[in-house]
Design goal:
Blueprint (H helix, E strand, L loop, with lengths): L2 H17 L2 H4 L14 H5 L8 E5 L3 H5 L7 H18 L7 H5 L3 E9 L27 E8 L2 H12 L4 E8 L2 E8 L2 E8 L3 E5 L2 H11 L11 H4 L9 E7 L2 H10 L9 H7 L2 E10 L3 E10 L25 E6 L1 H12 L3 H15 L5 H7 L4 E8 L10 E8 L3 H17 L3 E7 L2 E8 L3 E10 L2 E6 L1 H8 L10 H7 L9 E5 H13 L6 H7 L2 E12 L2 E10 L5
Antiparallel strand pairs: 1-2, 1-8, 2-3, 3-7, 4-5, 5-6, 6-7, 8-9, 9-10, 10-20, 11-12, 11-18, 12-13, 13-17, 14-15, 15-16, 16-17, 18-19, 19-20
Helix pairs in contact: 1-7, 14-15
Length: 562
Amino acid sequence: MPERKSKFLFSAIGAAVIVAGGVAAYTYVFKGPAGDSSGALGSAKLVPVSALMATYVTTDAQAWSKLQQFGTPEAQKLLTKSLEDFNKDVFKGSDISYDKDIKPWVGGVMIAVLPPSKTKPVQLQSPGNEVNPSLKLPEKTSMLMVVGIKDKLTALNFANKLKTQKNVKTQEFDYKGEKITETIENGKPTFSVVVNNNYLLLAPEKQSVEKAIDTYKGQPSFASKEGANNILSQSVNLQNTLAQIYVPDYAGMVQQLAAASPQGKPLPPQTLSQLKQVKSMVAGVGVDDMGVRVKAIANLDPQLNKFQYQNTPAKILAQFPSETFALISGNGISRGWQTLVEQSKDYPEAQQTLQQVRGQLKFVDIDLDKEIFGWMDGEFGFGAIPSNQGVLASLGFGGAFVFDTSDRKTAEATFTKLDNLAKAQRINIAKRNIGGKDVTEWQIPQQGALLAHGWLDQDTVFLAVGGPVADALAASKSSSLDKSDTFKTVTSSLQQPNGGYFYLDVDKTASLVNRFAAQGRPIPPDANAVLSSIRGFAATATSPDKSTSQLEMLLALKPSQK
């Protein structure tokens, strides 16, 4: 968040709380919104119905304290220092502390993105008093913050303290019976108001606060918006929720944000049609015993959603060795390709590119649709496997592509054509038996195999980058990826069955990164401290029905070392 936006919250809080009145504050119950994730709905009732999206950040200390159980001592020190530096930067030149003066009374924060205000064309006159054509001023979105006041007495004490700070000037405006306070700090204004003595509304533009007051007075709110009222109550099933994001009209949001961009170009009808497949979305970030978890639920339009989702049997994981440090797996590349081809008909540039690729492959007698993607109708996996031998010696790892297919005949014909093309380029094609499996290699003199392919069983073919990777795939494996401790730890808590995995072993990846860093610029100690606290990352997607798509991601963290 830009420095301007990170500061405006705190610079206006005191003056806004004063608006509630010193004596009047005591006439209310001192306790307001608690600040946990359940407060999102109450905050949304004060956000104008026109809001494009809203994010609710909890201030529940118990949820945030869960993070303290993870990380190396160096990472914990880095986090503590970052928070201290943030505190000093925001309150530079004052004796205000977030922990002492603000944290005790802030009860949850909702940040809403409002659409650009309607701009009127302006006319500019030339030196000769000739009127130029009307020009439209650039539009930009605005931000509104709804801050819960969970302890009014503490908030009032902070307001009194803020009044004594230097470089802070305030003035008040009346709007429909509510007092809007303009707080000017170093020449930059912030507008704020306290409503119902439970919520502080603030924004960098006066008009945004006025719209929020209109909402408080009875105008339609974000909570009553079609699509929003459902997702605000939709649970993403997270422990210790830190933040939630609500997008009630996904296509409309992207359309308006695109219009507000510096280019300001409207989205093509084809793109908008694709976006409308997603009706709304809700996402959340939480902390549990495994680490930081993100879940998102997209509500789809079943009439527009053309992709047919299928769960994977996850048997392909057993074909990869346990040392695999990165993996992408899924199901049905051929179906995804067919969907892509169908959708490309609406995009002339994409259709032209597709035809060019088809034509180039036809020149070497290969049918892109049938012989490349057509037989990839089963489960697949793309993995990275460490190796320091042969052509991989300088890189440190190679790649493996594994496919299940119901059309072995076409797959074999495709690889035969590729082998013949390699021969025409004077690449040596050789046969080798690895673990009882026949493997074809594209060999480079004195460096071994550049590529290798073969069949692991009747229905499973592989393509390996580097001979050592072919050995790792085809040889009898004592331990496969799905049996490795790290993979099970990082992925076992994700929803199953699912559509496949994205998986990264951060420890093994970091060792490769450090290896390359040793040859050039070393990794900064702070970055190493963060990497050393992460065990791995995994993500997966599920689709219980044609109108729902779910995404789950886990940043698996190591327990703190005390």
